[in-house]
Automatic annotation (TrEMBL):
<feature type="transmembrane region" description="Helical">
    <location>
        <begin position="340"/>
        <end position="360"/>
    </location>
</feature>
<keyword id="KW-1003">Cell membrane</keyword>
<keyword id="KW-0472">Membrane</keyword>
<protein>
    <recommendedName>
        <fullName>Polysaccharide biosynthesis protein</fullName>
    </recommendedName>
</protein>
<feature type="transmembrane region" description="Helical">
    <location>
        <begin position="397"/>
        <end position="415"/>
    </location>
</feature>
<feature type="transmembrane region" description="Helical">
    <location>
        <begin position="178"/>
        <end position="201"/>
    </location>
</feature>
<dbReference type="InterPro" id="IPR050833">
    <property type="entry name" value="Poly_Biosynth_Transport"/>
</dbReference>
<feature type="transmembrane region" description="Helical">
    <location>
        <begin position="87"/>
        <end position="108"/>
    </location>
</feature>
<feature type="transmembrane region" description="Helical">
    <location>
        <begin position="307"/>
        <end position="328"/>
    </location>
</feature>
<feature type="transmembrane region" description="Helical">
    <location>
        <begin position="152"/>
        <end position="172"/>
    </location>
</feature>
<feature type="transmembrane region" description="Helical">
    <location>
        <begin position="120"/>
        <end position="140"/>
    </location>
</feature>
<feature type="transmembrane region" description="Helical">
    <location>
        <begin position="372"/>
        <end position="391"/>
    </location>
</feature>
<keyword id="KW-0812">Transmembrane</keyword>
<keyword id="KW-1133">Transmembrane helix</keyword>
<feature type="transmembrane region" description="Helical">
    <location>
        <begin position="20"/>
        <end position="44"/>
    </location>
</feature>
<dbReference type="GO" id="GO:0005886">
    <property type="term" value="C:plasma membrane"/>
</dbReference>
Length: 429
């Protein structure tokens, strides 16, 4: 547990810094642009994230599980083979996702109304997907306990984007200019991180990949492709609900409403920063516990750590009750004041998410990826069912109930099936 807290602390510090940087970036954009123009940028980014999440199959979660198992039971040859296989998945699906995003852009314009003036800029922004290829890289860094290195990527990217945004704001650049600057800044930061991480992993022993046997490593990893498809499909569905509300709000309520929702989600994301680090830091110890037959210990480890970060999330939400009005009106602008209760509601939804933050690595380690997919699918059904049922009478408030519905399904269903599987595995001889 002490090792987990150390890794979690490194990741939280990086995520917290990144969350604050993201708020600063949004504040600059809100000050520099009209609400409607900012809304168009938000819609383009949401469209790219949805396509990226659905089709860019990053291998991090599956690969972390198998690489941790290889460290315990196999040797460096299998480790290198798995890493090489992950790189092929990461870069191959990134290219595919980019092509789909470009081809479907005219349809997206009809649905969300970017406008002809934005199409070429939106097409250029789709290219950022090509640099979002961190799956195998992050899995390797996790297995060698390089969590500080993992936390550097979002902070570096956000710092670069913040600096570029300041230049656009000071020079009174257009909204289109801001979007292209964000593209270039993120792409350069991502590429720099990929190069630096590869050099780091080479020093840890993940070298001579050209001679590594990826096929042999995959064959020695039970249900590799099944878990890869199911896990990435599941995370694609998760991204669909995380970003889909912005697209729905933009299409039905307009670009300005999409900007208000994004402001609320950016603030609520500060609470969620506790979750992703736990997910990452707990994946290796959970996989190792299960690999040596200590399933009950793995379950207790996952449950206690999730409830701990959920408690921190409640404390953070109580604090933000006081700070949110200042941030909305002073940092973003007075037109964002109506988003106050949306922020608080979304923060409470994040607390529910934190209560299941260690579920993904736990379910993956127990080889119940199908149930994980079912959990996310049920959550999406609840999410979009509530959203479409309430958006007409309640407007933006409907998004709060939609997120609460998703996270309630996530926590209740996820822990019930995981407890049953862990109990059954613990009774086996």
């Amino acid at each position: 547990m002490q090792k987990l807290l150390g890794a979690w602390g490194k990741l939280v510090s990086g995520n917290a810094a990144n969350g604050l940087l993201q708020l600063a970036i949004f504040a600059i954009a809100a000050q520099a642009l009209e609400l409607a123009a900012l809304g168009v940028i938000i819609l383009i980014q949401a469209y790219v994230r949805v396509v990226d999440g659905l089709l860019n199959f990053q291998s991090v979660n599956v690969l972390t599980n198998f690489m941790a198992d290889a460290q315990e039971k196999a040797g460096p040859d299998r480790l290198r083979g798995l890493f090489k296989a992950g790189l092929f998945v990461d870069f191959g699906t990134a290219v595919f996702a980019t092509l789909v995003a470009l081809l479907c852009l005219p349809l997206a314009d009809q649905l969300f109304g970017f406008g002809e003036d934005w199409l070429w800029f939106a097409a250029a922004y789709c290219l950022v997907i090509l640099t979002r290829t961190f799956g195998a890289i992050e899995a390797g860094l996790r297995c060698f306990d390089r969590f500080g290195a993992i936390s550097l990527r979002p902070v570096t990217a956000s710092s670069t984007i913040l600096f570029a945004s300041l230049i656009v704001w000071v020079t009174s650049g257009t909204a289109q200019t801001l979007l292209i600057v964000w593209l270039c800044a993120e792409a350069l930061a991502n590429i720099a991180f990929l190069i630096w991480s590869m050099l780091t992993l080479r020093r840890e022993g993940l070298a001579q990949l050209k001679g590594a046997n990826a096929n042999e490593a995959i064959q020695g990893s039970r249900n590799f492709w099944q878990m890869m498809w199911q896990t990435n499909f599941t995370y694609g569905l998760r991204i669909f609900s995380q970003e889909g509300d912005v697209l729905v709000v933009g299409a039905l309520l307009g670009e300005a409403a999409a900007a208000l929702l994004k402001a609320a989600k950016n603030l609520a994301a500060l609470i969620g920063q506790f979750g992703a680090p736990l997910h990452r830091a707990s994946s290796v110890p959970i996989a190792r516990f299960v690999a040596v037959g200590e399933t009950g210990r793995a379950f207790g480890f996952a449950l206690k750590s999730s409830l701990g970060v959920a408690a921190l999330g409640l404390i953070g939400t109580a604090t933000m009750l006081v700070l949110t009005p200042f941030v909305l009106t002073t940092a973003f602008g007075p037109e964002f004041e109506p988003a106050y209760w949306i922020v608080i509601g979304l923060m409470l939804a994040k607390v529910l998410y934190l209560a299941g933050a260690a579920l993904p690595p736990m379910m993956l380690a127990l080889d119940i990826a199908k149930q994980f997919t079912t959990m996310i699918l049920l959550g999406n059904i609840a999410f979009f069912g509530v959203l479409f049922a309430l958006i007409s009478p309640l407007g933006l408030v409907a998004t709060v109930f939609a997120h609460l519905a998703f996270e309630a399904v996530w926590a209740i269903y996820g822990w019930s099936v995981t407890a049953g599987k862990a109990r059954k595995a613990a009774t086996l001889p």
